[in-house]
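user: can you give me the structure for this one chain? tokens are fine.
assistant: on it. calling the predictor now.
[tool input]
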Amino acid sequence: MTRLFSTNALRNLAIVSAVSLFAGCTTSTTEVEVPASATKPGVTRTGEIYLLRGLANVFSTGMDGIGSKMKAKGLNVKLSNHTAWKSIANDIIRRSKVREGVSYPIVIMGHSFGAGASAKMATYLGQNGIEVSYVAAFDPSHTHYVGANISKVSNFYVSGQDGAASHNVILKGPGFQGQLENINVGKDPQYRVNHFNVEKNPKIHTKVINTTYGLTQSLQ
């Protein structure tokens, strides 16, 4: 039987359909709750970890799972919609210039539209002199670029099965000198994931959580 659509085309069609379905949903970006300082209850490690959901907070529930596991390890986590990335970044930039300060390392993760937003947020912070230690992206909907002051980027993407070029990778932009890896989990049988469950995979959770934890230090 002749294949009518590539895997990438089907992914994009699904995302567009979801956008249409949830067009009436609104997500507030005017009020952004940022991680508190090291005195936040339950936080025992340095750093600020930002998790960005995709469309309408509906298809990225795996980000909630990552957040819960990280909080159990004493990490300082904030979960937001992808549309809030610039407001969050501007608050980090503001705090970097005042006594309130920023708790490093900064880690950003996101799924789908949130994956693209994580690359944008990290690059924007880097352009403003803020070092980002780690970015983990889970199958962005388009190709994105990362720039200066970003130490490591891991992109867990789902490629097409028909040999077509992938349009959901992350590439080096101007000034990027860190470590960049695009990991094709869609064709790896140990993961068995697609666009809508890649951020829920336990093995991927373990990888990104262990990497993040290793970057932080104890506050005790």
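assistant: here you go. The beta strands are 48-53, 77-81, 106-111, 134-138, 144-146, 152-157, 170-172, 179-184. Residues 1-7, 16-37 have pLDDT under 50 and may be disordered.
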